Amino acid sequence: MSRLSGGSIPSAHAELYESTAEFLKAAANPTSLALHAVAFRKRAIDGAGKTVDLETLLDPTLVQKRHAEHKRQFRDVKHKFIEQEAKRAFLHAITGEAPETVRDGEQEELAKQNKVKKARLKATKEEIAEMYAQALDLGKKSAAEHNRLAEETAEVAALHKSITDMELELARLKSTYPPDKRLTTSEADARLEAQQEELERLTADIASADACGAELRSDLSRRNKEVARLQRDREREEARAAEVRRQREAGGAGVRAHELGRWYAVSLAAYRSLMGIKSARAVSKNGLEIEYVDGATLRLYFDAGGRFEDASLKGHDMDLAELVQEARERNDPARLVSAVLAHLRPL
């Protein structure tokens, strides 16, 4: 110890060292236990209380064991004390300053200061926690604001691109249509009105065509039904004609004439129905009047030899000049009748 401190032990601890040395010297004497046996027994009985087995405590065989244990504990305390004193002496030898000592009440003062500092630290921690929560809130708001700004930036970029495209298109239109070829407002309005009128006319034509198409579809359906009926009549009359031929071959001229008359009448009725003829009658020696089911009336005129000469149409504004000329050249009034029907009932 003297080597570390470079001198004698400090005077502040001289008494403690002396007491320790005397205690160790007395403890090393075996007779010290006998000298203090009575006092030890009295203290053991008084301090045993209810939690310690008195017989075990007063067992003389355990005294030496407890003594050795206490001695070991005291030795540990001694070594720790010597170690601390050696550190203090070493620091004193290095720094040359007197070792600091703990004054009376210093621990209490430090405890109060520590308590105040802990309270201040707690308040600071709470303030930091509040600031951290505010920072998190600001972070969320900043993220939302960033997203909004990003969307607005994208929208602005899209608008900028659209404006650029419009400017390019405007430049192209200006180059395509120079000022001397551009329309004035009045000219554009006039052209627009003309286009609107044309559009209205086309719309009316489409509506008329749709109505005409519906009418034609209805007429076609009716004619298909009529053709089917005539087909059935034809089959029936052909069967009758076959029967008449069979009877004629077998004999009986009257029967054959009657059947031929019936066949001719049915064929004529079928022809009239197919041609849309309501009735046909002779109005004079050389004139024939044909009335269509549509209300129009066609008159045919023949010469003395039976050749077709002329025709007239009532109830319709159809021009017959060209058709009459063609029928006169070919002497084919039936073609004229069919042409008039085709005009009255266009497909």
TrEMBL record:
Pfam families with a match to the protein in the record: Sos7 (PF20882)
UniProt feature, compositional bias: Basic and acidic residues: 231-249
N-terminal signal peptide: none
GO cellular component labels: kinetochore
Stretch list, region Disordered: 231-251
Top-rank taxon, per record: Eukaryota
Start and end residues of each Kinetochore protein Sos7 coiled-coil domain: 73-145
Single Gene Ontology BP annotation: protein localization to kinetochore
InterPro entries: Sos7, Sos7_CC
PANTHER family in UniProt: KINETOCHORE PROTEIN SOS7
Protein name: Kinetochore protein Sos7 coiled-coil domain-containing protein
